[in-house]
Amino acid sequence: MMHLFDLAPELLAAIFDAIALSRQFNRLMRLRLVSRQFKYFVDNTIFRLRLLRDVPELSYHHTYTFVTEYLAYQVWVARNSKSPLGRIWRAAVVFSERAGNKAHGTLMETLKTLCDLPRVYVSGTSHDRRRSLFLHDFSAWPVDPSQRELDEDLCVAAIYLGDRPYVERLITQGWRFCDWGSFWGDQFLSYHRKDIVSDVFGSAFGAAAIKGDVSMLCLLISSNPHYNLFDPLPLPLRACILKNAAKFGHSDAFNFALDSGPLALGRGHGFVYAEYSRLRDAVLSTQIVDNYRRGIDIFVSNRSRFRHFGSLEKLLAKRAKQGHVDMMLYLLTLGASPNGRIVKCPTWDCEMYKDGPLLDSVKGRSLDAVKLLLQHGADPNGFPDLRTPLMFATWLSTLSIAKTLLEAGANTNDGCPPPIVLAIAKEDTPMFRLLREHGARLDTPESGAWAMAVAEIRGYESMVELLVQEGVERGALLRRCSGRGEILEFPWRLLHPVVHTDSLMEWRWRAWSPEKRSDSSVFRLSPV
Fold first, then answer.
1. Which positions ≥6 away from 277 have C-beta within 8 Å?
2. Residue 489 Cα to chain centre, angstroms
3. 206: pLDDT strictly greater than 60
4. pTM given for the model
């Protein structure tokens, strides 16, 4: 029998194209895990067919490298066009040549670096603009960019890449950046209108702030004819620096913003205290302990009330989700409880529920954060059976986190549905094996029968066979656990087509009320 990968490359590409077009995207992505050859052909198919444009809720945070590779490929395909993607390619070529290295590897690295900037830039704008580089087909782009627009692309790219001589030459030619003139006060965003802005890469000052390059920020500020070394920077500029320094972990830029003049924390009226709000937001989002402490000290020294700071546990949970271990450790030393509960309210049904730092660390897929919380006494079983950390670890297919939770004593059978059912729903055989090794049951109606129902209705034949090997009968009835007489409305849709989503909050399961059932011991799962 001929091996699959012995076939001609063009035939293999056609086979994988057919597989991709017949499968849900997340099922296709799981094929990447089979082998290096599968990964190569699956990625090639996703890139060529531009499949990411059909995934509206793609999580950039957890697929950073893959998305960068995807966007770089799309730029390469459109390299000869006048579209925004072609303009990214043009900038990459120019600055690779300026660096004196025209090798393909250097060019592609420059390209990937530049692909980061439009992703960051558009993420802060409207939903339509945020995904424009993924959704639009630029193959027949009708608009020719002006020479000024092309020059602005190169200008912002130079700033992001740190090409100081290029920027200095522009300044000598009369280019002005962050030209704030005489405005002050409440015109928080108007500096963008007076800055150099590329419609591909964003604003020049914003690019320097995202990069955290203090010397470049100083160079741009000095180009302003109104600049005075002894005057404080206008608030919009400082707010831009603070926000990005906190978000991307730039300690020097954070301190530069605070050293650029005093903050009038009490200036404002009603609920609007601009300088207070910007410093508070930066303090709450920074991942650097020294920056956090300095920000808090400013509030204390100004005798400012800590409005909307929230509890230490709330901040711990936020840092846990981002995987900021240093900040987590500092908050724990201040007394934050690893078992604290934070009340949240999902927008789809306004039902209150309580999460904790451990659950948020699992959602953020941060193994180091999970380990730190467990070392400080976090209880992996102290959660409602609809929102256990092991359920989320299973659903997210984070095997290392699931193993860590199990080694810390997480109960494999707690959860509704049990984690073993979620492993089947995700076609995750390694996770299934891990859970079984740690005692996950399949001999109850709401474990084995539920798992079989999911596998059969979703058409996961490999999972059906796996369950049969474990002793679960085909077509097993799903029976309601005794003692649950209430109607349940929670985020599960185990038998609904939305099963392909990566978000647990997109799932929902419904139990039929006892008065509508002839047999009160039986319940069904039905699409809502």
1. none
2. 28
3. yes
4. 0.79
- Altogether, the residues listed in the chain come to a count of 528
The candidate with the shortest Cα–Cα distance to 387, out of 424, 346, 425, is: 346
Query: CB neighbours (10 Å) of residue 30?
Result: 18
The partner residues of 344 in beta bridges, in order of sequence, read 353
Asked if 350 and 362 count as a contact pair (C-beta separation under 8 A), the reply is no
Contact 86, 79 (CB under 8 A): yes
Contacts of 485 (CB under 8 A, 6+ apart): 514, 520
Query: Residue 197 phi/psi, 5° resolution?
Result: -130, 125
What tokens were used for 123?
A: 């993420």
Q: Find the range with the poorest average confidence among 114-128, 157-171, 351-365, 372-386.
A: 114-128
The residue assigned the tokens 């017949």 is 22
- Residue identified by tokens 């995700």 is 426
178 pLDDT tier (thresholds 50, 70, 90): confident
Using DSSP, state whether 510 is helix, strand or coil: strand
pLDDT at 452: 92
Closest CA relative to residue 239, chosen from 194, 281, 271, 180: 281
What does the pLDDT read at residue 354? 64
The domains located in the chain, with CATH, are 146-309 (1.25.40), 415-528 (no CATH)
Give the amino acid at 298. I
Structure tokens at 329: 């450790």
- At residue 261 the predicted structure's pLDDT band, cuts being 50, 70 and 90, is confident
Give the pLDDT score at 528. 27
